[in-house]
Amino acid sequence: MDIREFISKFKNHPVLFIGTGMSLRYLENSFSWDALLKRISFDLTNSDEFFYDIKSKYHDEYGYKYDLIASDLQKRFDEDVMNDRNGKFKYINDEFYELMDKGKNISRFKIYISKILNELDYKNIDELNEFKKSRKNISSIITTNYDIMLEDIFGFKPLIGNDILLSDPYGSIYKIHGCVTQPDKIIITNQDYNKFNEKYELIRAQLLSLFMHNPIIFMGYSISDNNIKSILKTIFTYVDPNSDEAEKVRRNFLLVEHEKDSDNTQVVDHDIDIQGIPTIKINKIKTDNFTLIYKTLANLQLPVSAMDIRKVQNVFRDIKSGGDIKVSITDDLDSLKNSEKVIAVGSVNTIKYSFQNTSEIMKNYFKIIEEENFQLLEVIDKLTIQSQQFFPIFGFSKINKNIKRTEALKEKQREKMRVLEKTMMEKKNLKETPNTIREILKSETIGISLKPNLIAYQILKGNVTLEDAENYFKSLSEEDKIKTEYRKQLCAYDLKKYDK
Question: What is the Cα–Cα distance from 363 to 340, expressed in whole angstroms?
């Protein structure tokens, strides 16, 4: 079956299960388990020989036991660095003692791992941008990776350690082997895995619920990976392999294996033998054409977007926590304000909702653009956009060409920018204005009240780069993004970038 047809059959938002191969594909500073331990060993001893000595101790017919290799390396690293207080790893010792002073006992070895993997130096950018667009249809992510690449790309909430047990799945990243942001939670040594396995039953139950109700796409793993086999064993230990539920899981299960330079698009059956359970048949595709997979996921048509489900969950949490609640009866749903939180009771054929208002859309401007979320933008024709309101229509109209009010909103936006330009040109000394937003904000010679308009003007004239503007907007808080000055600056950016 073609991968496009396979994904089009999904009835729920898929869950991604992400392994090391994905970080290796998109990050310059990523490592396999073997390469990470080898790098640490070399940094410690200035030779590969110590690593090879340890590695040779832990090998059997199934391969190398990296958790045991990591245990030996951690012991040597912690001892050597402790005994060389102000040497090569002084900064690791400094952090170790600062943490100890706060009552946190974290291995120097794990602190060093967090430093090695903390930077995000991206590559394969065009394909990565297609990956970002798929996030609007992704419910959640499970990963064994330590780095923060997925949080950075998707903007999902990371769940580490016990947080996994107390979470809503939508919009979450389950970091089941820990994260560089919490080095003490990193699972890498034999001792770590033993502790993890003792607690794994509760996490297993949480993951099993996800697997039963959502398609699962494994990426960044090989077919022989123990993580794949462990998950399958978990599922089919609890689910009768001959049941309808088991067949449903099989249909929803997809393994994407990397095959260099392959443009293959065919999903095939593959048998996996796992000790203790019958042979399992799964769906597998071997390809290097990840772009096609991402585009197909982004174009997946589902009744409700994953973003809307996450928002509804937030509303429900407000209700459970005893927020402002009122009961009203109406025959006209359109009479309700867009900002109101509503639970509707009625026929599925007669009730439809649009969650976004203008404020929400503008706060999520870059996410909507990156995801090319044309479905969400259909709400624009139903919104009340006042004549004095700033609204960035140009970028949105590139994504959804069916917005009926596009031309009227474009003219309104152009007129507002013309007024801004005329007003600013009447000011004196604009030629001496800084050309970065940071310099404008830091300037002591520019009046505070003038700075917001000046930023918008400099963006509009091309004196502030679009990249600088985008980075600035993305750094703003949620509160800042509801202010008029943000909307005005965003309209200047939107017009400059998309009015072509």
Answer: 18
Enter the pTM of the model: 0.77
Q: Check: CB of residue 279 under 8 Å from CB of residue 272.
A: yes
Six-digit token string for 153: 């790309």
Report how far apart, in Å, the C-alpha atoms of 438 and of each of 36, 433, 468, 475, 479 are. 37, 12, 9, 12, 19
The DSSP result for 401-464, as a single string, is TT-TTHHHHHHHHHHHHHHHHHHHHTSS-GGG--SSHHHHHH-SSS-TTTHHHHHHHHHHHTSS
**β-bridge mates for residue 268, sequence order:** 284
Amino acid code (one letter) for 305: S
What the block records as the tokens of 310 is 């996450």
How many Cβ atoms are within 10 Å of 381's Cβ, its own excluded?
Answer: 13
pLDDT digits (tens, 9 = 90+) for 291-306: 999 999 999 887 666 6
Residues paired with residue 140 on neighbouring β-strands, in sequence order: 15, 172
What residue spans in the chain does CATH classification 3.40.50 cover? 3-29+121-298
The distance from CA 437 to its chain's CA centroid, rounded to whole angstroms, is: 27
Note the pLDDT of residue 92: 98
Residues near 79 by beta carbon (within 8 Å), at least 6 away in sequence:
none
Question: Would you give the DSSP letter of residue 376?
Answer: G
Among candidate residues 244, 312, 261, 256, the one with its CA nearest the CA of residue 285: 256
Amino acid, res. 313: Q
CATH fold of 3-29+121-298 reads Rossmann fold (3.40.50)
Q: Which of 73, 71, 72, 92 is nearest to 82 (CA)?
A: 92
CA distance 212 to 239: 10
Distance CA(92)–CA(252), nearest Å, equals: 45
CA 231 from chain center: how many Å?
22
The answer on pLDDT for 94 being more than 90 is yes
Q: Pairing relation of β-strands 63-64 and 59-60?
A: antiparallel
What is the pLDDT, as a whole number, of residue 339? 43
**Residue 151: is its pLDDT beyond 90?**
yes
Rg (CA), the chain: 26
